[in-house]
Amino acid sequence: MPSTTRPSLIYNLPVQNSLRILPSQPMDRSAFSALRRFTPLLLLLASGCASYGVVQNAPEEHVARAQGYSIATWAMQHKGGDINLVLAFSGGGTRAAALSYGVLKALRDTPFVIDGRSKRLLDEVDWITSVSGGSFTAAYYGLHGERIFDDYEDAFLRRDVDSALIRGVLNPLEWFARTGRTELAVQYYEDYVFHNATFGDMKRDGPMVVINTSDLGYGVRFSFVQEYFNLLCSDLSTFRVARAVAASSAVPVLFNPVVVRNYADCGSAIPAWLTELEKREADDPRLAQMAAGVKTYFDKERRKYAHFVDGGITDNLGLRAIYDVVEAAGGPRSYLEKMHRAPPRQLVVIVVNASTEPRPNMDASNEQPGIIETINAMTDTQLHRYNVATFALMREVLAGWAKAVSTPERPVSHHLIELSFEQLASAKEREYFNAIPTTFSLSGEQVDRLVAAGGTLLRNNPDFRRLMNDLQQSR
User: Fold this and answer.
1) Does pTM surpass 0.85?
2) pLDDT above 90 coverage of the chain, percent
């Protein structure tokens, strides 16, 4: 299993509000090299000056647990079918965004027949859960559906975002801005990608898109769905999608956290699912950790704000959200009952893992590694181990979920499908993709090959072939 994503110095740097750079005007690579040398100093200088997060989450006027962009509302509108298909998009900058986009295209082009009707696998997607770079693709699809295949490449994948972001860093007026570096990047995403869209604009006839971030203060994995915003006494429907994606991809130090207000006096009580979770936590330390983190949002006096950073810190594969939702509901049977759904015949999770294998240079000599190289190595080690643990957990629980909802009359099959560069047959191809950095500016060739790789990995994956064989036999 490949290692986790590795943020470079170019990844997720800020951008000017008044940016006037076109995608056809990339910054010269010598400028990139110079910036890489001076960025640690610039960040150190900027860190000595206080900045304040811009708060743009509105309070709930009326607490309505099943309103807005919520899992409960989505479930009422989507009764499910024979296939329950979940996509998980990992982090990894534009590399992750392009690979996950390629998988969406491949699912669109994969037909199958069920009950005498020809359908596409893309139409069977129930959930998309994402972190960091994968959140750009997930959010765009959540807003526009299949329009993504018309304009997403120009809107994001083929833009030279890094040049724009780096010019913001080089502007001395922005080094000590009281609003922090993140606001500059949020403005860029608004102007060029999401165009002021809110979660109220998310399509209701598509999959539930769950964008994930990490609560820096308490290490809580936080999802941009109304159920989590209820904890903040806040209304998600007016919250900008660009700000959520920025929170999901805000690499600490390089980006300031996205700050939200934890409002008080909304008449909110501890939700029933959290009370039930507390009853079960003694038997499962993972549930206990989840419950403890969520309960901190009810300490309104101490937790007046929450600070959100890269979702990859708490789950670089985007898989933990699935586990949390099902287990918080009381397990798979209870989840289906609460969602008013019958058990599917096929329970499928496809993980689009855009991680690459790090190739550190520090062991080539006895020269002491620098600060950035040391931080990168520490991050790689921690997140790689967490990736392995997360995937092992999902393999275990997915089998358990399928067994729990199966009956002799209606057995449920399960498929956990991981797509990663390590699975490419050609060593030359693996080397090519492993060398693509975690940045927001890739060449046209890199984007083309990543999109194509998404389809190749899906079609050639043995677990995916078993799924298609199962679907063929169940016609």
Assistant:
1) yes
2) 52
